[in-house]
Predict the structure of Methyltransferase.
Amino acid sequence: MSDWTRGYRTDVNYTPGYYPYLNPAAHAFALLAAGWRAPQLDQPFTYAELGCGHGLSVQVHAAASHGKFYANDFMPAHIASAQVRIAAAGLTNLEMSDASFADYVDAPLPKLDAVVLHGVWSWVDDASRNDILLFLRRHLKPGGYVFVSYNALPGWAPIMPLRALLRSGQGHDSATRARDGAAFASKLLDADARWFKGNEPARAMLDRLRGLPGAYLAHEYMNDNWRLLYHHEAAAELNAAQLHFATSASMRDSLDELVLNEDQRALLAGISDETARETARDFCVNPLLRRDLYLRGGVRLSKIEQLQQLNDTTFALSMPRARVGLRIELGGVGTVTLAHDVYAPILDALRNGPADLGQIRNAIGEHNDIGTTVNAVKVLVGAGLIVPCLPRAGVTERKVVTDRFNDRVLLESLHEAELDVLASPITGGGFRLDRVERLFVFAQKRNVQELAEMAWQIMSQLGEVLLRDGEPVLGDEANLAEMRKRETQFRAEMLPLLKQLQIL
Ligand SMILES: C[S@@+](CC[C@H](N)C(=O)[O-])C[C@H]1O[C@@H](n2cnc3c(N)ncnc32)[C@H](O)[C@@H]1O
């Protein structure tokens, strides 16, 4: 019997995760903002996720939109647990398969508008990458797009040896070995090992790894294969499936004014070859993970078409207005303070619910030329403060499905802390809530008046207590008092947004 794993570690299941950058509405906006024709999401569309893990992202996206979704992952345990939720939530527009990439090439699928693969390209062997290219050649429509993420060079260059340390760990499974390896790396750091000296990226990464579950580390670092790529290498490989680079799916990374200084912009402007420019750009921005959109024969929009479609796009807050400040943290790039007179009116306008670009433009008054408005919206999307929405048509039908899906997730999340996302038929994507907020939503959906009482009853039955400033709250009364405080805040800030997003 041949080794079906092809060097991928399958002895522990992956951690379930939701990734907003796999949302077709986010892709449509990124492509549109870069001047490419994007799939029309008010029309039927087809979408496949390859190597989907437990498939939480594809489930949320299938629940929240009217496309037809497909997904595969060769670990049967991932697909089996996903299928239980799909059946319970009645997600009839999603089919998940435990086929390998090699077998999925021959799956009887319709032609696809979109194929996404997150956390796959760098982590599988050459033969699997080749199977994926065959899949894309066979199944992606002309004009269709691919989302692909991979570990990028030069960002990973100073950090790469950490993987060797993780892989040196001992233990009976990949998760234990990875954690043991991380513990050993920490001992080296504590012993002043010279490799760590002056290597801030490696120290920061080790710090991050120490807080991550063993299952995540196992899938990330313990496979036989781990390929770091420069942009020009990824672009050349994907070109074998007739794909060309369109734009980063990360609005943040693609906004020159956010992530490049003037000298960098001038230097890059002098490079005429697009692939060489994008590769050089990675030396300036230095991302660890590239998240890109590639097109198979992309069609350019005229300026007029682009503006018309941007004008029709609706945006929503991704967190309550009260929690949004104008100082934004941009990872490795630093902190930026957004201009109050442009950005605060936009956020204030969205406080009352999703708004289209025209309404947003009115809100910024004297600065309301279209260029300023579009740019401000892109910055807010890039900063994760607002999200583009699906076209409004069909939202009532979509809400029937997201309600069923969210009921199921809320029920499961009573016992599974990692299930922290609910689907919105407005954004077509997931919305993260903390444990207590999910309990409030659970109670609210049962028309319970006293949210705090019900939430505390459930937590105490499960033997949990609240945390305040990282410390456990002790005793029934103190927990209930803290819970009531959180209920007041939830009603004032979160509840109105959940209603606008039609999660409630
Ligand atoms: C790092 S995980 C990423 C999972 C998911 N995309 C995510 O981001 O949460 C990679 C996934 O690819 C799957 N995989 C690896 N090799 C595969 C193959 N040859 N065929 C199908 N799935 C594969 C693994 O089972 C695993 O769930």
Notes: The two ends are 51 Å apart (CA to CA). The CA atoms of residues 93 and 414 lie 26 Å apart. The pocket of S-adenosylmethionine is lined by residues 6, 8, 14, 17, 51-53, 72-75, 78, 100-101, 118-120, 123-124, 128, 219 (CB under 6 Å). The chain has a mean pLDDT of 93.
